[in-house]
């Protein structure tokens, strides 16, 4: 297990099952913050222009214009702080016994989606990179496919840094059964007609 | 007494700005306190840069509020 797979933090609160060990803790790539921050900045510049036209050319008040600029700047900083906090609280955690996605947005949402690895079979791990930026910065999605008794389920780790390396690591640990060598592959039976058939 | 329409518009805008300033300060304080509570329960630490950003936006909003009050009280008709 490489230390670079686990971002800094105290993750003991997520180790709730017996004999569980941490394998991977990742956030989305930090570069995905650039787009919303630039967008917020551009919107602030736009509204600054609007307030210039409104206060200088129509209402003739420099003091109100300056105040509106200050207000816009502080609003922009608040939004940027919110974007960073939302990114900071979105985590993908893989342990020897479960895969977990935690996403917390203060005041609006908390989602905690976990899959117990000893209840499902991991059948496929795909790595997908999109576009030039993804290629250059090594950002991509890792799609983990599970076989469930009723349907196939996908668990997607989105916009992960070094997705190729992590994909290989997950293939070795989840598909090669390096993590739980004693685990027996489950066989799902399809709609039994009679119990005596077994 | 006749009051100009622009003065009424400016007064309304000043009032709106005051409301916005209050909203920004409250939002920052509450949002960060919630985040901080989550970090202590999860075991994460909030990066120093984020705290800095929080204080900058709060103090900027406070400064804006102060300027608004000064404008409102001493700079009629704005």
Secondary structure elements and pairings:
The complex is a heterodimer of chains A (198) and B (78).
Chain A: E1 22-27, H1 34-58, H2 62-88, E2 90-95, E3 98-105, E4 109-116, E5 121-128, H3 131-137, E6 139-147, E7 152-161, H4 163-175
Antiparallel strand pairs in A: 1-2, 2-3, 3-4, 5-6, 6-7
Chain B: H1 5-42, H2 48-74
Helix pairs in contact in B: 1-2
Number of helices of chain A: 4
Which consecutive residue ranges of chain A, at least 5 long each, have pLDDT under 50? none
The Cα radius of gyration of chain B reads 18 Å
In terms of structural class, how would the helical and strand content of chain B be classed?
Answer: mainly alpha
Tell me roughly what share of residues is in helical segments of chain B: over 70%
- Strand % of chain A is 25-35%
- Tertiary shape of chain B: elongated
Measured distance between first and last alpha carbons of chain A: 41 Å
The main β sheet of chain B shows up as: none
SS-based structural class of chain A?
Answer: alpha+beta
The total beta strand count of chain A reads 7
Give the biggest sheet of chain A: 4 strands, antiparallel
The oligomeric state is heterodimer
Order of helices and strands of chain A: EHHEEEEHEEH
Chains forming the largest contact: A-B, 30 and 38 residues
Strands ordered across the widest β-sheet of chain A: 1-2-3-4
Query: In whole angstroms, how far apart are the ends of chain B?
Result: 18 Å
**Strand-residue fraction of chain B?**
under 5%
